[in-house]
Amino acid sequence: MDWYQPIECDNTVKNPLVCDSDNFCENGFSESSFLQGKEIQSWNSNIFFQAKKKKNDGCPDDALQNHLMLPIYSSRLVARIMQANIAGIQYLPISILDSKGQKLDGFSLINFLFFIEAFDYDNSEFNRFSADFPNPNVRGKLAGVTKFVLKKERLVGLDVFRLRDYESRFFVSEKFKEIFETNKFTGYSFKKVELS
Asked: Do β-strands 160-163 and 115-116 pair in parallel, antiparallel, or remain unpaired?
């Protein structure tokens, strides 16, 4: 089976809604809460993402554009993913607001639960944080990746996962890509990644 890196903010509607604000901090969450592969137990249904700037108002994509680059999916996309029995996803309902504060219903923040060590260090192209980087917690870790190669044997039975070595990146199977493209969902294009 082939695997793909979703390219966010691509294959969009003509005038997409772009959320540039949220109330995560007020509710005890941060972007990193969704980059750990752990189920969120105490979700607050008052959490919202908003297009605060009028220039960011528009029509929402199925994979909604937002300032944190977190996956936020429309109810149409969520329904198709669930029908296809794609496992490893927690759907967290959120409100989407335009610049006037008007609510757009039917969106969920996506929390990927499969957190896999599948990065092929021998064949990928990347750089690391230096040994004297100011933040000691990231020294020696992946700083950027220009070419992803994934270990095929680690992906058996999966359709979506977050990469443990580079948690900001998630990958989807050919099955996920076909669902997205067949139903003409918007907000992602897909780049095929190599397997080893």
From this structure: parallel
Residue 28 is given by DSSP the state T
Strand ordering across the sheet containing 115-116: 115-116, 160-163, 170-173, 3-10, 187-195, 149-150
Contact 114, 89 (CB under 8 A): no
Contact 162, 116 (CB under 8 A): yes
The SS3 assignment for 176 reads helix
pLDDT the model gives residue 40: 94
Decide if pLDDT at 44 tops 90: no
CB 43 within 8 A of CB 99: no
Compute, in degrees rounded to 10, the torsion defined by CA atoms 94, 169, 6, 41: -30
Question: 73: exposed, middle or buried (C-beta count within 10 Å: 0-12, 13-18, 19+)?
Answer: buried
Q: Which of 115, 154, 186 lies closest to 3, judged by CA?
A: 154
Global pTM value: 0.93
What's the whole-number mean pLDDT along residues 148-153? 97
Among residues 4, 5, 23, which one has the least CA distance to residue 66?
23
Distance CA 40, CA 53 (A): 29
Q: Measure the CA–CA gap between 194 and 119, rounded to whole angstroms.
A: 11
As beta bridge partners, residue 171 has: 161
pLDDT at residue 154 is higher than 90: yes
Name the pLDDT band for 181 (thresholds 50, 70, 90).
very high
